[in-house]
Amino acid sequence: MNAKQSLSSISTNQDLWIEQFRQEMFERDYRSGLSAAENIGLERGLKEGRAEGKQERNIALAKKYMAMGHSAQEAAEFAEIDIELLK
């Protein structure tokens, strides 16, 4: 009788262990997915921020070039920007 009870207990414990393992895997995968999504968003944001910063720097450079007596067209060509950004 003790053998049957022990086997039943082991079987129940194993089922609980498997269920707990599955739950932990789900939670780990969920957190991993969220982390990956955040990293992608951060990378995209940094890339966009760098592009905006570069454009602002080029506009400032073109304005300095214009202050030195050059035309807006020359300044835009020099800074490699659209002339409309200087107006």
Topology, please?
Layout lengths: L1 H66 L4 H8 L8
Helix pairs in contact: 1-2
Describe this structure in words.
The protein is mainly α and 87 residues long. The chain has one domain. The chain has two helices and no strands. It has helices at 2-67, 72-79. The longest helix has 66 residues, at 2-67. It is rod-shaped. The termini are far apart.
Give me a quick take on this structure.
By secondary structure, the protein is mainly alpha-helical. The protein contains 2 helices and no strands.
* Backbone CA Rg: 32 Å
Strand residue percentage: under 5%
Low-confidence stretches: none
Tally of distinct domains:
1
Count, helices: 2
- The geometry reads as rod-shaped
Which sheet architecture does the biggest sheet show? none
Cα-to-Cα separation, first versus last residue: 93 Å
Supply the key terms.
87 residues; mainly alpha; 2 helices; 85% helix; 0% strand; rod-shaped
